[in-house]
Structure prediction request, 613 residues.
Amino acid sequence: MEERGSPDGDPARNLEQGPEGPETPIQVVLRVRPMSAAELRRGEQSVLHCSGTRTLQVSPPGGGPDVAFRFGAVLDGASTQDDVFRACGVRRLGELALRGFSCTVFTFGQTGSGKTYTLTGPPPQGEGVPVPPSLAGIMQRTFTWLLDRVQHLDVPVTLHASYLEIYNEQIRDLLSLGAPRPLPVRWNKTRGFYVEQLRVVEFGSLGALMELLQMGLSRRRSSAHTLNQASSRSHALLTLYISHQTPLPSPHGALILQPQQMPPVDAGELPAGGKLCFVDLAGSEKVVATGSRGELMLEANSINRSLLALGHCISLLLDPQRKQSHIPFRDSKLTKLLADSLGGHGVTLMVACVSPSAQCLPETLSTLRYASRAQRVTTRPQAPRPPKAKPPQHLETELLQLQEENLHLRSQLGQMDPKASGLSGARAAWAQRNLYGMLQEFMLENERLRKEKKQLQSSRDLAHGEQRILAQQVRELERRLLSACYLQQSGPAPPCPCVMVPPLLCHVFGSKAPGDWPLSARPPPWAPPCCPSSAKCSRERSRSEWTQTQVLAEMLTKEKVMPSAPPLPAGPLNASPVLRGGAAVPNLARRLEALRDQIGTSLRRGRSQPPPR
Ligand code: ADP
Ligand code: MG
Prediction:
């Protein structure tokens, strides 16, 4: 037993690091139960000896040569339940199940060899009396470990359990709400073999799971016979289904999905995730040795038949030509439900149990040979892939952004060019095919829209440039016009800013800031700010000034100006013969033309009048 703790020889360590490659052999662990009180009383001899942690020596009572068997781990009669749990490698299976693999632990051996004890501890001492913690089996210990492990995961995990037994070749739901009734086994391509209408219960705590286990154990068929006072008369399968949205990273690269044997949780819904199944096989028995009669004999026959079918499948699986050969999993319900664990995509651990007594030697040798062969059976572990892989978060975000941008660009382009928006029918249909297609489509369309927008922007900039040049020319002409007007009216004295920036504009544009005025109506850059309420300015205005400024304002605002306050003019507003028609100038070019005319006229008039005194 000491060797078990050494780093190199530690079978637990070896199994915990077991290989999950394309082909993984079934892991086999051997447990030798101690001599029972009855066997010792009968004076039976032990014929089994452990040699190291992985080899078992069988010494035939007649003095024949020893036979050695090698397994992943060998646990002798002195091993505790905890030793078995730690050494058998079930935690590795738990980890794999958390990563989405389909894992199976099953006990195998002669009746009374300790299979049920190894998985769930000694039989209950009374109704509702729990197994003492020190005697709890692999199942309870794995439950405790798993629930603890799940609590420390960053992702939320959903757990379900189902529990069934195969009794006389009938499947019975040990968790059914009513009395157990036979359930059919079905097969389909995605799920493989599965039990229809099996109750799958969601649980969230260790206590709840232990209750489910107790419920199943209490309903499971067991009978007393010569070799076992609480002999299981059925094969029992308890399955834990582990599902979570984000698959845990696999230690061996990408996970390949296979939602086989996943029972429906919600009308046809499959929990995509791993599973961990515990199988307690009913033991093979020699009816003569167990003294079974009547119903017991019937049970024994169907147990033996299904175990025979299991043995046959294992033999064929060992055949190197097995790819060509047909494996008769359909021969029994047991082999149907274990098909995936044995020859499919599962990861499997077999705990072979044997009695050390010389009386049981033939069955023990048969079990050992069987277990040795099982070690050579390989599976191709694969983890299920979620039904539809979600796109990565960044792609989703990018898609949303592109959709938004696309909408925005479409509306912009729609305003500028109504023909530009809208996809062609064929492209739209293509885009709908899938998310990635849509993303690509949006990117292409956005690229196209961006280009068009850029072209439109550059032609708009060009127009703006031309407009700016024209506006500059207009301003220059305005300035020259105003100077000419002033010279004509007042002589060469410095002009009042209010003349250059007609006060009427202040009425016309109200309290608007100069920046809000039409370009051509803005004061020249060199003019001081105008004060519309300035009484001094108003008083100083002459009638001719008013006429000039009003006409100019009319021209610049393209409207006929009606003063909002009693104005200065005494004569008719349209008295100016020079600038009439200015309000009708439709655009800058025409206004420019009009201004040129005005200036020419003013200058001509200026020349024809005598210079001011
Ligand atoms: P099986 O399921 O293989 O038919 P059981 O698990 O029911 O056998 O065990 C038969 C009897 O032997 C039970 O009374 C059980 O308590 C006892 N037993 C089995 N294994 C051990 C062990 N390792 N230590 C102590 N008692 C054991
Ligand atoms: Mg049993």
